[in-house]
């Protein structure tokens, strides 16, 4: 009976560990995805009147492949939210509504 309980506990610990690993990998993937949007930073920082073609192309790719990473981008403290939220329109890219993102608070 004790051996069976230990097996169940070991299994539960393994499941939790796998879940934490998957979450860490997803965050890492989003960090790489967000870093790939670096051509957009001049526009978002209000340094450019229009986003570059590279920015818009990468934004399209992110929307198609990892749209949830856009939420992480919007949750960055040092981001001009107004410019970031205007980026899809400036690039003529349809994105999911920002209201679908959960606040980090």
UniProtKB/TrEMBL annotation:
Keywords: Cell membrane, Disulfide bond, Glycoprotein, GPI-anchor, Lipoprotein, Membrane, Signal
Membrane topology: Lipid-anchor; GPI-anchor
Residue stretches making up the Bifunctional inhibitor/plant lipid transfer protein/seed storage helical domain: 30-101
Signal peptide: 1-26
Top-level division of the source organism's lineage: Eukaryota
Gene Ontology CC: plasma membrane; side of membrane
Chief localisation class: membrane
Cellular localization per UniProt: Cell membrane
Family stated for the protein in its record: Belongs to the plant LTP family.
Protein name as it appears in the record: Bifunctional inhibitor/plant lipid transfer protein/seed storage helical domain-containing protein
Organism: Penstemon smallii
Top-level taxonomy: Eukaryota, Viridiplantae, Streptophyta, Embryophyta, Tracheophyta
